[in-house]
Design brief:
Layout (H helix, E strand, L loop, with lengths): L1 E7 L3 E8 L4 E9 L7 E6 L4 E5 L5 H11 L7 E6 L10 E2 L2 H9 L5 H17 L5 E5 L9 H4 L5 H7 L8 H15 L7 E6 L5 E6 L2 E5 L21 H9 L4 H10 L2 H6 L5 H9 L3 H25 L4 E5 H6 L1 H8 L11 H6 L4 E2 L8 E4 L4 H13 L2
Helix pairs in contact: 1-3, 6-15, 7-8, 10-11, 11-13
Length: 389
């Protein structure tokens, strides 16, 4: 079954065409600057050269028309959509019909920046591919196994009951993929493992997966909570929001934009949100860049400690995401001074090897792995699981 994976942003569409049975990527691409000046599609077939398409792309419907035109020689048996928020309604992937589209519209207030383009992508695909089955795979669904003690905030319960204000967690598809690969790599049943999955990228989150179920995760009601990230502040005292509004004369919307897009390691360093730039600056003597890196690693370490306590111990720590996969130094810094957990990194495995691998020593009390992120493959497999019934 060839499944087209669609991931829509406010001004972009990313896609992959995947043969789900054989886990083969047949084509992939991205459209940037939808509804803006000089939009462009970059498309690549398996083993082929990149194709650039430049033309006016006013909206997501036009974007999907171009994507499908570019894929006209390929068979598309189904479509899997990455949907950021499923609220409490969607605890698993679902086959899309009109009632699901309506339900997604009702959830838009929970994540307006993400859900509006997600829904636009679904509607565009339904319009251009009538009769082709489609599935919605939710970033929040994998975290729906969290107990109340993990997802409820310390605010009046009526706010949760009436307005559904709670921890939802994100990156669920990535954490689910990591747990699946850990099981396959170690040849052990997930239900026998306590896994801490660290998805570290521009957006970062940590998930505690105890015996196959998420019991806690660092992102909360929105992706702003948790770790210090590329441009997001992570955990802060909520009163800071009111304080910034007063002393910097900002509106609530401006303040939230400030915390989401001007903060994190970018705000701390004044250099970049890209850790490659931060390391260059730090080695050149920029103390702010060094401090930003240190804070990032410290926050990840704190969550690992907290989730080890929450699960009663930890068997596996897995690193994924652009930073988690590619920065040996970040992994070393996070794992430093963790001897109390009997963690022993194998520095040759960590430094010199690439790709999916165990990076702890053979006698380490905790197995530490690198698992390259592949959310698209997870979405394809979830779509295949739903539609092959």
């Amino acid at each position: 079954m060839n499944i087209l994976i669609i991931n829509t942003g406010s001004s972009s569409v990313k896609y992959q065409l995947i043969n789900a049975q054989y886990e083969q990527v047949l084509a992939n691409g991205k459209i940037d600057r939808i509804g803006m000046k000089d939009p462009v599609l970059i498309h690549q077939k398996k083993g082929g050269e990149e194709i650039l398409v430049k033309r006016e792309i006013p909206d997501h419907s036009a974007a999907m028309e171009i994507v499908l035109s570019t894929l006209s020689e390929e068979t598309i048996d189904a479509v899997g959509h990455r949907i950021v928020h499923g609220g409490e309604k969607f605890k698993d992937a679902v086959v899309i019909d009109e009632s699901v589209v309506e339900a997604l519209t009702q959830l838009e207030a929970l994540a307006p920046l993400h859900m509006a383009p997600n829904i636009a992508g679904v509607k565009a695909c339904m319009g251009h591919l009538p009769g082709v089955p489609m599935a919605a795979v939710f970033d929040t669904a994998y975290h729906q196994t969290m107990p109340e003690r993990a997802y409820l905030y310390g605010i009046p319960l009526e706010v949760y009951k009436k307005h559904k204000v709670r921890r939802y967690g994100f990156h669920g598809t990535s954490h689910q993929y990591v747990a699946k690969r850990v099981r396959q790599i170690l040849k052990r049943n997930t239900e026998s493992l306590r896994i801490i999955s660290c998805h570290l990228g521009n957006g970062s989150s940590v998930a505690a997966i105890k015996y196959g179920k998420v019991v806690d995760t660092s992102m909360g009601f929105t992706p702003l909570e948790g770790l210090v990230m590329g441009t997001r502040c992570g955990d802060i005292d909520p009163t800071i929001v009111q304080y910034l509004m007063n002393v910097m004369d900002m509106t609530a919307e401006e303040t939230m934009r400030y915390l989401n897009t001007k903060s994190g390691v970018l705000g701390l360093s004044g250099v970049s949100r890209d850790f490659r730039d931060l390391f260059v600056a730090a080695r050149a003597g920029n103390q702010n860049a060094e401090t930003a890196i240190d804070i990032f690693c410290y926050r990840v370490k704190k969550y690992i400690g907290a989730y080890t306590a929450a699960m009663g111990n930890v068997d596996v720590i897995a690193f994924t995401g652009g930073i988690g996969e590619n920065s040996a130094e970040i992994r070393v810094r996070i794992m430093a001074d963790m001897e109390f957990l009997s963690i022993q990194l194998d520095h040759e495995r960590n430094d010199s090897q690439k790709g999916e691998r165990v990076i702890s020593s053979d006698d380490s009390g905790v197995t530490v792995l690198v698992v390259p992120a592949n959310e698209e493959m997870m979405i394809a497999k979830e779509t295949y699981r739903l539609l092959k019934r």
